[in-house]
Amino acid sequence: MLVLREVTVRFGALAAVDRVSLSVEEGERRALIGPNGAGKSTVFAAVAGALRPVSGRIEFAGRDVTKLSEPRRARLGIGRTFQHSSLFTGLTCLENVALAVRARRGLGLRAWLPRGRRAEIEREAAGHLAATDVSPDGPAGALSHGQGRRLELAMALAARPRLLLLDEPAAGMSAAESAELASMLRALPPELTVMIVEHDLDLVFAVASRVTALAAGQVIADGTPAQVRASPEVQKAYLGT
Ligand code: ADP
Ligand code: MG
């Protein structure tokens, strides 16, 4: 589904991502772990097309996407969670997700639609909300932090991605919210490929089938959760021992 070949992304003199190669199968749940500044978010930005590598190649679903823009990659099926700022706090959760469904279908946000069409869009939106366990009614602005993050996930799912990039989805969540998120992520459609950057290693090991560890822009370990956890390089990067 996704192949990175020797991808390097620079910020001036800094190689934030340094010759990273990795390969993710369709339906995989891949975690990207590593200390702060390791280059995890930069890898996601390069995959989504928000940052352009100075060298290397990115293939998605068998196609070279290295030079494609972010919107074109989104249309091919590379999705990311929206930021909080993209929630319309005065609209209901259902209305927020319905807007994301409209956007995917290339419909104007305010374009008039016949009632049957609107009902169909709302049914789809309600399905995404059910998958992320968010109540459709009530303003998005009134949600708890954990519910807000799940609403963002519902909006990302409304884009019907084939590859979903989740950058620290549990950030700021309580332990209970994080556990709920883990079971929700496990319930996502099996054909959806998910990459997750997360500091909460309990969540990582509950969700990921395979883990790639980065440090200082480079891959230091790649394998099953147990293999990566046991890697001396990973223990050194995390514990400084
Ligand atoms: P992570 O997500 O693993 O914490 P990042 O990918 O955000 O790490 O950052 C990798 C490195 O690149 C860090 O040293 C960070 O300071 C640097 N960096 C990230 N974004 C920028 C930017 N826009 N401009 C300059 N340096 C950046
Ligand atoms: Mg980051």
From TrEMBL:
SUPFAM superfamilies documented for this protein: P-loop containing nucleoside triphosphate hydrolases
Statement: the UniProt record of this protein carries the keyword Membrane: no
GO molecular function: ATP binding; ATP hydrolysis activity
Source species, domain of life: Bacteria
Record-level GO cellular component terms: plasma membrane
CDD domains for this protein: ABC_Mj1267_LivG_branched
Stretches assigned to the ABC transporter domain: 2-241
Entry keywords, A to Z: ATP-binding, Nucleotide-binding, Transport
Protein name (Swiss-Prot/TrEMBL): Branched-chain amino acid transport system ATP-binding protein
Phylogenetic classification of the source organism: Bacteria, Bacillati, Actinomycetota, Actinomycetes, Streptosporangiales
